[in-house]
Structures are given as structure tokens and as C-alpha cells.
């Protein structure tokens, strides 16, 4: 069954002025003469009827007039709250220009200033004060067919840290990408921020902060609140995919382990980041030659992103014939206190599997000189951590060094694209979490890859939702990585890009969704009988932001 119906899966259609305040069905000046009469809109709109294309032209003209990206973010959010079909038409048709505004890097600044730019609530805010009442709060959401929820507690927003309730910008932005990149109908998405307080003194002292001004909830009280929320979500929306987003390490790993076999859930910072990074490595190896199992990979950062990438790489190396121990021995981590080695007594549980026998090393440069890695991956949130000397060492040890500076937003990247190419005399394969402009060096133009999770999670979500998979498994992220790598053309590689162009992302997402759906059927997780043409079925599930005839519920 397609989700792209004439009337989206939501409340009954209003008439008149109420219809113009319904963003899912408000077409604004594009309502036809016939519709204006039938829907009670005559006189409530200017007399001229515009096409959607003409409306897009108006939006882009005003977008270009805005003085900075934050103002463009505010403008696009206002458009989404007014006319979602038009918003998504603009984003889908201009994805390379709009993604950096509605998500990284601009969303980072938007979250930092969320209380000051707040216009209209989007999603659900559930606070520590709502314990015992979460089920009733979910009933306040107007849509009964929610298929994807992005949930955050705001403690580790990108590389910016604890932003508390201001972190709502992240689930809102992520769900916009589910729709724009993979066609999940906007009426079936729900952003949720769990406000358990904040330890950010700047927010506590901000008179316009929108959240609870109290220290973060910890321990049993925190766990009980999360448990109540997950239970309430499963009761009201039994087929919903729940994405954990931007939880701190203290909670991210254990919540994923606790709920991954009880609910249809995943953590994008752990699994999505891992999948997109593995895809980038597969593409890079087409340029460097060799197999993944033969690589020595050094990570700067040993949090949820780094460990998640390491775990998926280990699984991929095992597919190529290594034992688990051999594969883990190829992955090394540097955290804030140096190289992760067995002799250290300060290691968190999630790092122990990568604590190898090695003399203590206090800094990244010494680790690079000691290990001579073939790939250097930054997931530390530490800007400029990849210095000229470090990158130079990578170029000394490797004819084609692989350097991924994946921390978001752009201001937190371990190095820039220009630095990576310049410091390696144009030999590096570079990818970053946020976009960088093309780089001219020695007469050649380098277009770096953007290792953005948006290449992975929308397609995974589409596949899971289309077949109503009961669970999300690691195998799904493995096939997503392989599928994404296959979508990279020789032309992309010639430019230095290890990911497809963003303009192709809906096609990429449908290919990933097909692979994920296949895994769901193989693992006996799909609740939908297998259609004869699975790809056609997946594509039929994708929402297109066009105007359709609205019919009144009588």
C-alpha cells in the first residue's frame, strides 16, 4: 500500500481559514478556482492562481535575499509550518543548497540559539515533570499513523555538547531529511525531545531558554522516564521506528542495547555514522587498491560514533576472512587521554574491546608515527585536531592517504578539505561530515565527499517502514554501506568524491531501502507480505511533494 495518497494520513480536512493553517494541506495561492469555491477559500487568498513552480520561484528569491544562513533556516522552518508540500518541493529540487541549511552545519547554530529564534512548536516536548502522564501527552499529537520518531535528550548535540531542550532542532531536521531524501510522508513523522534538564550553565542563565532549568536527571529516575516513553510509544504507534539521536556516551550505548531487541530502534550516531563511513572506505579502496582487511585504521575519538564505526568495520573485515580478534587489531583509537591501550585503567566499558597491547601514547601525532595507519578517521569534535604535521605523516606513509574529518558542524571538523589536499600535495582521499567547497590545487579541482548520515538513515528508515520490519539489525547497516558504495560512479571517484552527489540521494535511498527490505525478509522480520516487485513497491511508498486534489470528509 502506498503512503502517497490524495489525503495524507492525518486528521480530517478543515475548510476555510482553518485549512490555510494546516501545513499538510495548505497549498496557498496554488488552490484552483474550483478548490477555492469547494473549500471555502474564496476571498481568503489573492485572486491570481499560481503554480507550485511559481511559488518555488518566490521562495528561492526570498531565500537569496536573506543575509545569513540562520535567517535562511528560520525562513525555511516558517515555510514548513505554513505549507509542507511547498517546503519539500523546494528542498527536494535544491537538495545541495538546502541540506546545509535545514541540517548540518546551520542546525548547530540554530540549536544554540533555539530559545531566541523560537517561533512555533514542532514535535513533542516531554519533560521530567511529565512522569506518569506520557501516554496522555502522546494522545495530544494529532496524527494517528506515525511511522518514524526521532528522539533526543539534547545532551550531545553534534559536537556542541549539552543543549538541553534546544536540541529539538535535531529531530526536526533529521525528520525533514527522512522526507526529503527518502520520501517518508511528513504526516507520519514525529520529533520528540525528552527534557531531563541541562548541565549547561549558559542555558540555565539564559532568560529565553525553553527547557527545564535544573540539573540533568540521572540514574534510575532517568531510566524510568525513558522506559515510560518507549512503552507509551509502542502502545500508541506499534509499527513505529524509533531513532535515538544525540544522546551522550553515558546513555547512548546502554539504551541501544536495552531496547534494540524490544523495539524497532537504532542509534544513528552509532550505526548510521558507522554505515556511511564504511561506505566511504569501500569507495576509497577503489582508488587505493587492496582490501579492507589489510587496512590499519586510526580513529581520533572513541565515543559512540568512533566505536560504532569500529564495530561495523570489524564485521566487514570478518566477511573478508579475518577473525574478530584480527579485525579488532586493525582498529586503533585515540581519546582525550591518548592511545587506547590495555595498560590504561581509565577506560570506559565500550572502549575495552579496542584496548590493544602497546606502549602508552599521549597524542595523535605519536600514534600516527607509531602505527603508520592507512586511514585516519576523525570523530572527536575537536577542530583542527589533524594538524599539518599529522596529515603530512599520513602522506609520507601512504601514496594515497585516506583522511576522513567527520565531526559536525563544520567548525568542529578535524581539518578542512583545503588543508587535506594542500598538505598531501593533492594525494589525499578526503571526506567530511559537513560540506566543504571544491578545492583548486595545482590546476586540478577536488570535490570532496560529504560523509553525511543522510545518505544512510533515510533509506534504512524507508526500507524498515515499507515492509513494517519489527526490528532494525546490524546487517541492515552493512548492506546499506555496500549499496551506497556501489552508487559511487567512476566520475565521482575521478573528482575525489567517495559518495554520490546529493542530487541523487532519493535514488540512493530507494536502492538502500530495497537492500534493507531484502534483509528484513531474509531475517523473518517483515510484517508485509513480499510483493512481486519489491523495488516498485518501495518506490510507491515514497511521498512526492506535489499538490493533489483534496476531498472533504463529509
Tell me what the structure shows.
There is one protein chain. The chain has 554 residues and is α/β, with parallel strands linked by helices. The protein has 2 domains: 51-263, Rossmann fold (3-Layer(aba) Sandwich), CATH 3.40.50; 271-452, Rossmann fold, CATH 3.40.50.720. Helices cover 44% and strands 10% of the residues. The chain has helices at 17-20, 33-38, 52-65, 69-82, 84-93, 95-102, 106-112, 114-117, 134-139, 169-182, 201-204, 219-236, 249-259, 268-288, 304-319, 324-329, 364-371, 388-397, 417-423, 457-467, 474-486, 490-494, 505-522, 534-540; strands spanning 124-127, 148-152, 189-195, 241-244, 265-267, 297-300, 331-335, 338-339, 375-378, 402-405, 429-432, 439-441, 444-446, 449-450. The strands form 3 sheets. A 7-stranded mixed sheet has the order 8-7-6-9-10-11-14, with helices on both faces. A 5-stranded parallel sheet has the order 1-3-2-4-5, sandwiched between helices. The protein has a two-stranded antiparallel ribbon with strand order 12-13. The longest helix has 21 residues, at 268-288. It is globular.
Amino acid at each position: 500500500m502506498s503512503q502517497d495518497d490524495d489525503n495524507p494520513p492525518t486528521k480530517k480536512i478543515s475548510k476555510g481559514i482553518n485549512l490555510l493553517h494546516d501545513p499538510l494541506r495548505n497549498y496557498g495561492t496554488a488552490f484552483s478556482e474550483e478548490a477555492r469555491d469547494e473549500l471555502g477559500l474564496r476571498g481568503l487568498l489573492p485572486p491570481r492562481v499560481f503554480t507550485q513552480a511559481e511559488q518555488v520561484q518566490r521562495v528561492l528569491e526570498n531565500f537569496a535575499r536573506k543575509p545569513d544562513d540562520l535567517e535562511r533556516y528560520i525562513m525555511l522552518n516558517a515555510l514548513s509550518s505554513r505549507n509542507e508540500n511547498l517546503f519539500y518541493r523546494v528542498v527536494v529540487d535544491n537538495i545541495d543548497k538546502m541540506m546545509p541549511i535545514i541540517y548540518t552545519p546551520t542546525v548547530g547554530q540554530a540549536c544554540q540559539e533555539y530559545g531566541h529564534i523560537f517561533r512555533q512548536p514542532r514535535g513533542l516536548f516531554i519533560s521530567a515533570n511529565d512522569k506518569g502522564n506520557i501516554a496522555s501527552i502522546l494522545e495530544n499529537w494529532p496524527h494517528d499513523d506515525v511511522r518514524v520518531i526521532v528522539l533526543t535528550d539534547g545532551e550531545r548535540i553534534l559536537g556542541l555538547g549539552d543543549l538541553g531542550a534546544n536540541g529539538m532542532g535535531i529531530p526536526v531536521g533529521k525528520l525533514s531529511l527522512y522526507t526529503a531524501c527518502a520520501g517518508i510522508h511528513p504526516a507520519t513523522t514525529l520529533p520528540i525531545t525528552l527534557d531531563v534538564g541541562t548541565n549547561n550553565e549558559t542555558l540555565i542563565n539564559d532568560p529565553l531558554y525553553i527547557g527545564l532549568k535544573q540539573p540533568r536527571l540521572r540514574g534510575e529516575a532517568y531510566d524510568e522516564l525513558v522506559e515510560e516513553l518507549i512503552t507509551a510509544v509502542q502502545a500508541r504507534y506499534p509499527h513505529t521506528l524509533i531513532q535515538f539521536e544525540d544522546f551522550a556516551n553515558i546513555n547512548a550505548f546502554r539504551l541501544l542495547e536495552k531496547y534494540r531487541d524490544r523495539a524497532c530502534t537504532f542509534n544513528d550516531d552509532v550505526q548510521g555514522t558507522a554505515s556511511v563511513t564504511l561506505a566511504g572506505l569501500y569507495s576509497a579502496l577503489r582508488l587505493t587498491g587492496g582490501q579492507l582487511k589489510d587496512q590499519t585504521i586510526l580513529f581520533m575519538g572513541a565515543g559512540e560514533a568512533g566505536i560504532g564505526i569500529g564495530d561495523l568495520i570489524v564485521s566487514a573485515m570478518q566477511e573478508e576472512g579475518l577473525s574478530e580478534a584480527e579485525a579488532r587489531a586493525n582498529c586503533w583509537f585515540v581519546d582525550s587521554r591518548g592511545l587506547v591501550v590495555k595498560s590504561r585503567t581509565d577506560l570506559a566499558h565500550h572502549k575495552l574491546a579496542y584496548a590493544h597491547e602497546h606502549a602508552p601514547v599521549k597524542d595523535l601525532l605519536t600514534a600516527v608515527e607509531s602505527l603508520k595507519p592507512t586511514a585516519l578517521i576523525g570523530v572527536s569534535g575537536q577542530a583542527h585536531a589533524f594538524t599539518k604535521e599529522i596529515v603530512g605523516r599520513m602522506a609520507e606513509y601512504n601514496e594515497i592517504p585516506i583522511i576522513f574529518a567527520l565531526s559536525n558542524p563544520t567548525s568542529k571538523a578535524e581539518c578542512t578539505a583545503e588543508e587535506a589536499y594542500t598538505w598531501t600535495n593533492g594525494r589525499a582521499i578526503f571526506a567530511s561530515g559537513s560540506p566543504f567547497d571544491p578545492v583548486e590545487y595545482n590546476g586540478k579541482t577536488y570535490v570532496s565527499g560529504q560523509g553525511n548520515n543522510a545518505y544512510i538513515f533515510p533509506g534504512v528508515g524507508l526500507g524498515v517502514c515499507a515492509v513494517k520490519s519489527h526490528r532494525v539489525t546490524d546487517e541492515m547497516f552493512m548492506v546499506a554501506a555496500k549499496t551506497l558504495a556501489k552508487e559511487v560512479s567512476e566520475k565521482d571517484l575521478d573528482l575525489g568524491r567517495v559518495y554520490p552527489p546529493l542530487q541523487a540521494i532519493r535514488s540512493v535511498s530507494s536502492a538502500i531501502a530495497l537492500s534493507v527490505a531484502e534483509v528484513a525478509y531474509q531475517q523473518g522480520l517483515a510484517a508485509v507480505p513480499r510483493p512481486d516487485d519489491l523495488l516498485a513497491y518501495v518506490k510507491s511508498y515514497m511521498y512526492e511533494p506535489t499538490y493533489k486534489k483534496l476531498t472533504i470528509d463529509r
